[in-house]
Amino acid sequence: MNTAGALSGKKKVRYELMKNSLKSRLKKGERVIGTMITIFDNPEIAKIVKVCGFDYFIIDCEHGSYNYSSVANMLAVAREAGISGVVRIPEVKREVVLKYMEMGAAGLLLPNTETAGQARLLVEYSKYSPLGNRGVSLLRPHTGFEEVKSAVDYMKNLNEETLLMTQIESPTGLKNLGDILEVEGIDAAFIGPNDLSQSMGIMGQINHPDFVAALDHVIKTAKEKGKYSGIHLTTPESLVPWVEKGMVLNLLANEVIYMMNGAKDTLSRLRK
């Protein structure tokens, strides 16, 4: 048996599992569907989401109460399982952005993005030079603790692979959307329907003409800027129309909804 060959083969497979393929799939014209992790604090949730068939997941660190260690553990399992783990950050600060990137996040979602300035800060803190100014430390989870033979090549590749999403949740964000998406390094405009509809004075009315017009504007602007768009909804029926209109980077429900719906359905059938 060629031991050296066998070992090198295993290393190659491991690298492919850890590589973030989310952006490359989008570039090929694929549509991806993920879910939100909001409360469950177990690293194996990443593997469960993968087995269910999702393409990626977002850990909610805006509304959620996860500490850094919990997120790091989920991202570690995600990378080994071959699923992209994205983090919705609480705010665009250097320490916050850097820590999640060092953990190996496949991307970041910035909530309530309203200006190009916010978008530029997200790029500055998450991308390496010359695109940004991310601090360099290469013996970390984001490298899988593997030897980086060329720091320059690695940093360039990671800049390309990292997905940066801006969450549009207000009329101000809608107004400045073109400028936000023109920021180099920003990949997508993502809709938070609850906050956006609330800020428009039509809370929860996702079929309201003004809300529909707002989403049509997001899809059109994203296409014009060569970027992606997506939304987070709780049912396939509500999501399908937006997929058909061109949203390709979407989220469906969250782990709490799936658990509760499954439990309620099972119990209702048992108690008939």
Which ranges are low-confidence, i.e. pLDDT below 50, for 5 or more consecutive residues? 1-17
Q: Helical segment tally?
A: 13
Q: How many strand elements?
A: 8
Biggest sheet layout: 8 strands, parallel, barrel
Task: Explain the overall architecture.
By secondary structure, the protein is an alpha/beta fold. The chain has one domain (3-270): TIM Barrel, CATH 3.20.20.60. It contains 13 helices and 8 strands. The chain has helices at residues 3-18, 22-27, 45-52, 68-81, 94-102, 116-126, 151-161, 171-175, 177-181, 193-199, 209-224, 236-245, 255-270, and strands at 32-37, 56-60, 84-88, 107-110, 163-168, 188-191, 228-233, 249-254. It has an 8-stranded parallel beta barrel, surrounded by 7 helices. Strand 2, helix 4 (68-81) and strand 3 form a beta-alpha-beta unit. Helix 3 packs parallel to helix 4 (68-81) and helix 5 (94-102) crosses helix 6 (116-126). The N and C termini lie far apart (61 Å). Residues 1-17 have low confidence and may be disordered.
